[in-house]
């Protein structure tokens, strides 16, 4: 089986390596990326080849590939930034013989684009909820049209000890408003508001929160900017902070109790 990975960033390289090393069948991997050097680096690292965005494919040694090699792939995997997902699906859907999947982090819009451009092929949207270096983790999936190629991708993630679970596009995208947009906004807001302090003053709450600021800001800022643009949530964090700031002691106690009761109810539900 052969796979075309559209996007040679960190997630695209991780996906290509996962398919090459852990798929239940042998998979050869090719990369395409507007940054040709990134595509060549990814292909060289995995013994794969490069597909030119204009349609001229090359091997890792830079020589032009044969017409057969330049044709189509069993599965096309979209691993581009969120704003580019729909355009990438439209551009490369015709390259997919069996299936097209994405790992972009949003589900409703990519799945709609897959239905529009690849209605007669297998389709699925996966979202690895971790940076490649933090694997294994949770991987929600919406299978829009199942089949052997989609099953192969799903089994690859399971083989790498990830927790793959089915959801809906609406449920996933709504959850991302909290677990990504609101979470990142709250962490960054603390980073903006916090003053430097002697570490000896940190509490069991402030210390891990400061570490979260370091963790978030140590990643690629464009990824976080794309998430904030894709999902609502930051405004809710602003409104919540204003509510807390304006609260008198009695109102604050009520907010405190309400949040605590909500957290307890969620813990009980998870048991």
Structural class: alpha/beta
Main sheet characteristics: 9 strands, mixed
Low-confidence stretches: 64-69
The CATH C-level class name of the largest domain? Alpha Beta
User: In angstroms, what is the radius of gyration?
Assistant: 22 Å
**Shape, per Cα inertia axes:** elongated
Describe this structure in words.
This protein folds into two domains: 2-167, NAD(P)-binding Rossmann-like Domain (Rossmann fold), CATH 3.40.50; 171-270. Helix content is 50%, strand content 17%. It is built from ten helices and nine strands. It has a nine-stranded mixed beta sheet with strand order 4-3-2-1-5-6-7-8-9, with helices on both faces. The chain starts with a strand and ends with a helix. The relative contact order is 0.09.
Fill in the keyword field for this structure:
2 domains; 10 helices; Rossmann fold; 50% helix; 271 residues; single chain; 9-stranded mixed β-sheet; elongated; alpha/beta
